[in-house]
From TrEMBL:
The keyword Ribosomal protein applies. GO terms for biological process: translation. This is 50S ribosomal protein L31. Belongs to the bacterial ribosomal protein bL31 family. Type B subfamily. It comes from the Bacteria. Part of the 50S ribosomal subunit. The keyword Ribonucleoprotein applies. One of its GO terms (cellular component) is ribosome. It holds the Pfam family Ribosomal_L31. InterPro entries: Ribosomal_bL28/bL31-like_sf, Ribosomal_bL31, Ribosomal_bL31_B, Ribosomal_bL31_sf. Keywords: Ribonucleoprotein, Ribosomal protein.
Length: 83
């Protein structure tokens, strides 16, 4: 293995899944300016759009999240090609 290529500044970070408000804490080197108080301890906060607690592969539930109307935009864009 190569020496001195791995970061040394690991710390506990709170990751929050914004789709279901689930929070889990693990070590990370990711930079963030936000913090979150969990059980009286303040952790740096990383916001996630999807995690293991909301991803259909892990939950077994298929759900469609169309946050920006992307599906309607796609359908209207290609409507002219229908015969």
């Amino acid at each position: 293995m190569k020496k001195d290529i791995h970061p040394e500044n690991y710390r506990l970070v709170a990751f929050k899944d914004m789709s279901n408000e689930e929070v889990f804490i693990t070590k990370s080197t990711a930079n963030t300016k936000e913090t979150l108080d969990v059980d009286g301890v303040e952790y740096p906060l990383i916001k996630l759009e999807i995690s293991r607690t909301s991803h259909p592969f892990y939950t077994g539930k298929a759900k469609l999240l169309d946050t920006a109307g992307r599906i309607d935009k796609f359908k209207s864009k290609y409507e002219k090609f229908k015969k």
